[in-house]
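Narrative progress, year one. The postdoctoral researcher (J.K.) led the effort to move from monomer predictions toward full complexes, under supervision of the PI. The following entry was the first complex the group processed end to end, covering 199 residues in total.
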Amino acid sequence: MKIYKVGDTSKAVCYTCKAVKPTTFKLRDIPFSDGEGVVKNVIAGVCDACGEVVATPPQSTPSIKKVIEEKRKPVEARVPAHMIDILNCASYELSGTVDFVPTILKFYIHKMSSNDKVVSPSKLQLFLGSELATGKKVKRISIKGGKILQDINTLKGLTKIESTTDIIKSVVLKINNDILTKKNKRVIKQLKDVAASTL
Ligand SMILES: [Zn+2]
């Protein structure tokens, strides 16, 4: 990938001038194609003749994607209060803080959506029939970012669990089973490594 600096020049088709024009790379705010927001201060090719943005170089794509990602709505589910306690206890046990909760959820959902051997989705459905699956849904779990929605949809296909809330509830109960009850050494090791490298 060629990396452009502010001030570098090039040539590109300008749709405003309807011609190939010399361009200069400058910092510009780029609006989303849906019009609902802008990415601020990214390097873009600007037409020297009319001042319009004519191109964004590949190097700007990750910054643009990051903003789109942050704008994306989180996946949410209402759950019984004890499920939050389970997540906090698991997080505390793995990392010494409750800040690790979102990562544990994403780790589990991602691993299971890829049909992982250590964190297998095969018995996920069973947790929904357990006593801990019941209770008044008074708390909210919100998971943001990454490929979470895609992973949840894949997991729905693999487990035949249809609702997002049921997926999240069953994942929480699997975390309870693996980390707090059975203390599965392989999963705990993997998650502790993640915690040590990210927190
Ligand atoms: Zn132009």
